[in-house]
Each structure stands twice: as C-alpha cells, then as structure tokens.
Design a protein that fits this description.
OB fold (Dihydrolipoamide Acetyltransferase, E2P); mainly beta; five-stranded antiparallel β-sheet; 222 residues; 20% strand; disordered C terminus; disordered N terminus
Amino acid sequence: MATKSAGAEGSSEGRGGGVGMAELAHELPSAGGESAHYEPRKPTEADFERYKTYVGQKWTGVCKWFNVSKGYGFIVPDMEEAKQHADDVFVHQSKLKMPEFRSLDEGEQVEFIVQLGKRGMEAAEVCGIGGAPLRGHRIHPLGKRKEKEIRCYNCGQYGRHKASQCKRMPQKNVKACYVCQSTAHLASECPNKEQQKKGGPTKERAPHGEEREGDAIAGEEQ
C-alpha cells in the first residue's frame, strides 16, 4: 500500500497525508470529472439487501467519474445484475493500489473487491485488470507533463511548488491574495480582479515590495 495520498473529502476513510491536496487543489482547473458534479443513484433498502450478497466478490468495471481534488469517484461494474440495476460503486483514492498520488482516469478499466458502506457498494484493493498497474488521471500534482495544471495559490506560479513551499511568501500563517500577492487583502477583494477577468495584465508584487507586470492568472473557487 502506498504511503502518500491525496487528502480527500466525502470519503468513508480518514484523510490521508503526504501530498497536500488541500493546498494543491485550491486552484485546480476544471478538467474531465472536475467540470461537473456527479450524483449517483441513491440506493434503496432493497438495494442494500442485494449488495450484501456481493460483498467479498472480485469484479471488473470502468471508472465513470473521478474528482481528482477530492480524491473519490465512481465505477460502473461489469457484473450483469449490477448493470441492470444501474448500480455505481464508490471508490476512494486510499483504496487504489498505486504509488504516490492516487487517482483514476475516466474510462479506465479496473478490478476490485466489493465492500459495503453507508453510501452503498464501495471498491477495495483497486488495480488494473489482472493486477495490472493503474494509469491514473491525467492531472497529476507537480508532475512534469501536466505541471501547468497545478499552481501555488500564494504566488500564482504553475507546477513549480505548492503553497507550503513558497519562497516568495515565506511568512507562516499569513494569507495572501493569489492574484497580486498582497497580504493586505484576499483575492475576493483584489482591485486587480476585474482587470484579470478581462484577460489584461495585472501588477504582481515581487518579494521585496516592488511591483511588476505579470500575466493574469484566472482564479477559480474551489
């Protein structure tokens, strides 16, 4: 089992540690499963009785949706009876058998053990078909190929570091505007915000107080 995990919300497991997704996901752009919230069918009491007969079985399926920032998603099982009932299987990143940052790509084929949780069926010991390695989502924090997908929300730089490692804002427990780096206000009150939305340059504050012109960086709410 990997030692690092993407801290997740809305899971049946406790929050994992090591990757710092609370910081990395603050400005995670919408992509794939991030672009829309997915609501699975709510299981009935009859469904839960049926689920009990599946517990411990090894199934295969396809990842239907996965939220990288929250660390969970849903699998559509190949099991015929489950397909007939439009069942989804909840999957949490802590159950994925892969090193470091754990995620699933939409459409990825998986193999897993069925468990029962409060929300219905849940996947455990998730791997590729026949024990093959999982591919994972294309968004990977601080990765080389997709480094522009993640940025430090202190200084606005993409893929270089996370907020806790930011050298431009070395003060601990000091909140800063991630648009202009000022500690006098937050991004929601930034005077440059409207100019930023229009795609124009904003004045970016350098470490020693001087101002310089920087490219606008679109801010999104988590």
